[in-house]
């Protein structure tokens, strides 16, 4: 942060007292300040030192000559002297000046020469000031209690005296306090006092009587000093409440029409808080509902608008409405509300009345109806009369009046049509009104009647209902009947009331029969005899009227009892049965459907008079009833009993075939026959009756009741048992006991007997099983001959073939139509089976193949032994050992599938040894191993010679290491620009690093001589060239359990853990194989000729050796193949093809190859085979399922073996897999 430096020069006093000047400086606390000291080099010359003193204590020493700048005392770490040799303006900078820095400072300059007019002593009086720390406002309430640090006061009513106190402290000097209302300065008393801590503070008191002018005021107390270019202030907002200043009403200017909506506005202004409004009605002193809204003005007062809306009527004419306004200020001061009023003028339509309410006259008489009204204005402009809502046409000869001057109506010569309700309608300038009441005029005449029947619809006789007949007046006056005559089918049935009447006038006799309503006639418990047409005629005081129209009384009754018939009379199961329900009296209305019941259960899908059952079943053996149904209900039913019979029929007949095991302890056959009435069952053997007392058989008979679930009637079950204890030997004879057995029933009354026959056969499990050939030999890859399996059994046996507990074929014949591999050697079993048991026989298929070998080197009893192990079938093999195409005889011991060659330490040379084996099938591919030294030799050397030899070897090793290091350093410098970058991901190892370079140099092939180039002619002694120094070899790249990559030398000894290993690959020198299957290989050594064969070479399978070995095994591989030019990848993965060996394995999966680059000049376009031999227990990478085809699988007894063909495209490359 930049340092702010303030130099405040208030007064400069330059004295004339010798070489001394005086100056006053004012500084703000917390700011940086410069105390000036004039150093005049141009006039006074160079100086020795500048010393600063505060009062009498030195605080700073500066010397430009001595390069000295030293603050002292309280100015340590916060002062420095600013000196400029080209200017006389210098000074002492004091950082963050404080109140303790106040005082008199002296600047003493020691010049090298004493000259006139040079100020050697300059004094500065430093005064510090500070701005006020705070400004607060307190409010003093009426009780003398002071509320501190207020920001607002109120609400307070106008006229209230307010006392505010402003305090400010922390400033030097004390600030001046002032009160402001915006730009207006207020009064206030200013004083000084001391707070509780003893600090001096400024105090200002403001006393104000609040008025409307203080509305919305915000008072400010400002603290100011003479050096401040700004002020520190505190604010307080004043909330002043004032009474309303005015109230006014805005309403209608003139008369209003009745029914209109009148809006009156009462406006109250200048109130704070907003005024409350009250509306009064001077007539009944009722407070009227209204709606108020408030709006705040710019002066913080409220304008209240009270809306009074009312729908006026004639009662509001001349009514005075008053609006009263008040607020809390007026209530607190006990002031009366301010008010204003308005008077309503209402014009309304006429209010009309007619008299009298009721007028009764006889026809041809006159009658008068009066019409009076009240209205504003009173003048009428139209008069109308209405009868029953229809306008009376006036003027007319039958009417008088009904005008504006005489609104009453006179009706002349009344008729029955003048009966009705009359209303008067009057109209003035406001509107039209109709009389609220009416005058009802009755003109009397004889009645016209009609007959009504209750209930109106037909009735049911079984319910024995009551019928009410009513004779009602259609027209006539008066409307009450005093007498009624009742008629049935035109004949007088009864006249009511039954008392003596005078024809000319009613003379009521004091009898009970006269005190009834003659217009109603009750018919009780009516039946079908009450049916007929009823009518009536009535009498009033105007006389008898005409007879009414006839009404028919309809009575419904249920049908009569039917007669139920069945056909045929004898009911047989599975036949047709027709039932008929005959009803003579169908009832009223006639029956429309029939109901059928079976054992009391309604048959829903039959509603006609006939019911046909087809076919008849057991469930139809029941009580059947029927009855007819109409709207009056069901009739009486008729019932019959149905008994179902059945002719003999099999429920369970004999099967066409029945078999039994020849030594079965229990054998039986059964049949079941349905027959009602019941029948009997007898048995026959080959047409001969089996008697009940036969010792060879036992007949069991059971009678079974009907079964509704199976729809079976009464049935008989008969079971024929074989008494095996009475049969010869207690068993059946497979030839003589095969017979036909027949179950026959007798007939019954409804049918003839039935018969069923089964063929009985004695059964036995498979036996005497044979196979066409018990031993089969086949060359690996060949297809064996068909095998046939046969056995005797009844029922006939079914066959299936198994190998190693797995089914490989079904049927009598085994045909393996695929090339056989060695793992298919074994017993093939044929199993014949039926439901009584099984039998089996086996044939052994032996798959023959030529030997396959592997060599290991071991040190046994101080001797080096080469062990050649083979796998072969047949196992009778012969071994041949070679060294450089020379057959070895001495030191060879062969036994079974193993041959051991013991090296003579003094005679046997070092180099490549090979072994091959031969059996009746063929000769194996030779196996080879490099022998580089024999440990047994060392044991024959004396102790002294041993020490000498060890010393020589150590010295030689040291020299070799030194030479290698020198060569490596020189080559590294020369070839650093040509080296390719090495991979760093996916577990690849940087062989260019020192650690891995030393590891590489320790590999067994490193440093070995370059093989000679191939000559033009075939040389039997040359090897195929290798891109690695030691020939066809590689190092092992293995991923351990931690996910890291480890490498082992090919010469590394086997670990206890079964780790994956690369086996070094050696191509043996050409050997004359007398029995080589491919004759072309004898003379073929040119690489291009091999390519023309278009046949991939097959390296020998590798045998996993899990025991500890002193050296790794070297395996034989075929001649290398030159990769064609069109192959773009540097490394081509070639899965092993196995047409010759047909080895099978389901677990082998090759590793994906990795690429390495190493600077080592070699011949370009070379090819090498890499053999990856993985242990069974080593987890290999997973490849797609397409790699795991039949031709990619290997024998599970062998290590999973895969090969990579590696092409070196240029010089200086190493490829690792």
UniProtKB/TrEMBL annotation:
Chief location category: membrane
Matching SUPFAM superfamilies: Immunoglobulin
Subcellular localization, as worded in the UniProt entry: Membrane
Annotated region (Disordered), positions in chain: 1009-1037
Domain Ig-like: 29-127, 132-233, 244-343, 350-442, 447-536, 562-643, 648-755, 766-846, 851-932
Parts of the chain that traverse the membrane: 947-972
Chain intervals with Low complexity compositional bias: 1020-1030
Keywords per UniProt: Disulfide bond, Glycoprotein, Immunoglobulin domain, Membrane, Signal, Transmembrane, Transmembrane helix
Bilayer topology annotation: Single-pass type I membrane protein
SMART domains: IG (SM00409), IGc2 (SM00408)
GO molecular function per UniProt: cell adhesion molecule binding
One GO CC annotation: plasma membrane
UniProt GO BP: cell-cell adhesion
InterPro entries membership: CD80_C2-set, Cell_adhesion_signaling, Ig-like_dom, Ig-like_dom_sf, Ig-like_fold, Ig_I-set, Ig_sub, Ig_sub2
Protein name as it appears in the record: Ig-like domain-containing protein
Biological classification of the source: Eukaryota, Metazoa, Ecdysozoa, Arthropoda, Crustacea
